[in-house]
UniProtKB/TrEMBL annotation:
<dbReference type="GO" id="GO:0035567">
    <property type="term" value="P:non-canonical Wnt signaling pathway"/>
</dbReference>
<dbReference type="Pfam" id="PF01392">
    <property type="entry name" value="Fz"/>
</dbReference>
<dbReference type="GO" id="GO:0060070">
    <property type="term" value="P:canonical Wnt signaling pathway"/>
</dbReference>
<dbReference type="InterPro" id="IPR015526">
    <property type="entry name" value="Frizzled/SFRP"/>
</dbReference>
<dbReference type="InterPro" id="IPR041772">
    <property type="entry name" value="Sizzled_CRD"/>
</dbReference>
<dbReference type="InterPro" id="IPR036790">
    <property type="entry name" value="Frizzled_dom_sf"/>
</dbReference>
<dbReference type="GO" id="GO:0030154">
    <property type="term" value="P:cell differentiation"/>
</dbReference>
<keyword id="KW-0217">Developmental protein</keyword>
<keyword id="KW-0879">Wnt signaling pathway</keyword>
<feature type="signal peptide">
    <location>
        <begin position="1"/>
        <end position="22"/>
    </location>
</feature>
<keyword id="KW-0732">Signal</keyword>
<keyword id="KW-0221">Differentiation</keyword>
<feature type="domain" description="FZ">
    <location>
        <begin position="26"/>
        <end position="143"/>
    </location>
</feature>
<keyword id="KW-1015">Disulfide bond</keyword>
<comment type="similarity">
    <text>Belongs to the secreted frizzled-related protein (sFRP) family.</text>
</comment>
<keyword id="KW-0964">Secreted</keyword>
<protein>
    <recommendedName>
        <fullName>FZ domain-containing protein</fullName>
    </recommendedName>
</protein>
Length: 294
């Protein structure tokens, strides 16, 4: 990793390269603590930010209001450096000079994250036009994509897709077929302090059968799928009461796709019959390890 004298606070950001010169801040800015409402900018290696910021926001109330619309995108992890990119603009580190993100970082984040915004019906905004950021030969933050891939396991990614209908089981045989390639999730939603809706997986994702992903990876991947495909999540949580679903999907060319969604109805007689027969059921082409699915 590259280093510039006087910028040791950036060391814990990880996977970031600092390159050559910046510009003076001036006397009109001040250091303030990053507010608790800006979750995406916590645990990134520093706790104080410059105000006004690089987006031209002059008050903390304005910073919080404008940044909350981006926190949803940051939670999808649409790019390894999406949080670093956004926080360098909304909550720039409190140093003697502003450190912009490099144009190359902007392009990389835009190319990965613009499809997520498009899935929600929003274009990449003019305020984040990558041409406004410095070239890599200036002092700026640039992602070290090759090092990131080397140090971190590359996992399948959820993508924006057509929302599958929430289906009902018809026979216990169909239930058993679904059990052979599915995960079980319990979803809930709540209102945030800003009036938005937030969706959560309330418990550990359960495997009906062990798939190609490890359980701790699947929890994160399904959460991101729900964030990206919010239209599906809204359909699956019509009320504020937690609901349980079976998600049937597969991985194609590194992309996680959910093909079918089934509502888990505990009182369904066919579902109960299927759970009784599951212990003896053999999935085609796989070895079944029964787990508790009650």
């Amino acid at each position: 990793m590259g280093h510039v004298k006087g910028y040791s606070k950036l060391a814990s950001l990880g996977n970031i390269l600092l390159v050559a010169t910046g510009f003076d801040i001036g006397l009109s800015t001040k250091c303030v603590v990053i507010p608790k409402e800006m979750d995406m900018c916590h645990k990134i290696g520093y706790s104080e930010m410059r105000l006004p910021n690089l987006m031209g926001h002059t008050s903390m109330a304005e910073v919080i209001l404008k940044s909350t619309t981006w926190q949803h995108l940051a939670q999808t992890d649409c790019h390894p450096h999406v949080r670093t990119f956004l926080c360098s603009l909304f909550a720039p580190i409190c140093l003697d000079t502003f450190i912009h993100p490099c144009r190359s970082m902007c392009v990389a984040v835009r190319d990965s994250c613009a499809p997520v915004l498009a899935c929600h019906g929003h274009p990449w905004p003019d305020s984040l036009d990558c041409d406004r950021f410095p070239a890599d030969e200036d002092m700026c933050l640039a992602s070290l994509t090759k090092e990131y891939k080397y140090l971190h396991k590359v996992l399948p990614k959820p993508a924006c897709q057509t929302c599958p209908a929430v289906e009902e089981f018809f026979t216990h045989k169909r239930v058993l077929e679904v059990f052979c390639d599915t995960v079980k999730v319990k979803l809930s939603k709540k209102r945030t302090v800003f009036g938005d809706q937030e969706y959560n997986i309330e418990c550990q994702v359960e495997f009906i059968t062990q798939g190609s992903l490890l359980p701790y990876e699947t929890q994160s991947m399904i959460q991101k799928w729900l964030l990206i495909n919010e239209n599906c999540t809204q359909r699956m949580t019509p009320t504020y009461r937690p609901m349980v679903y079976l998600l049937v999907g597969n991985i194609e060319e590194g992309i996680i796709l959910v093909n079918q969604v089934y509502r888990w109805q505990r009182r369904d007689s066919q579902l109960n019959l299927a759970t009784q027969k599951w212990r003896y059921h053999k999935c085609f082409g796989s070895v079944v390890t029964p787990e508790s699915i009650g």
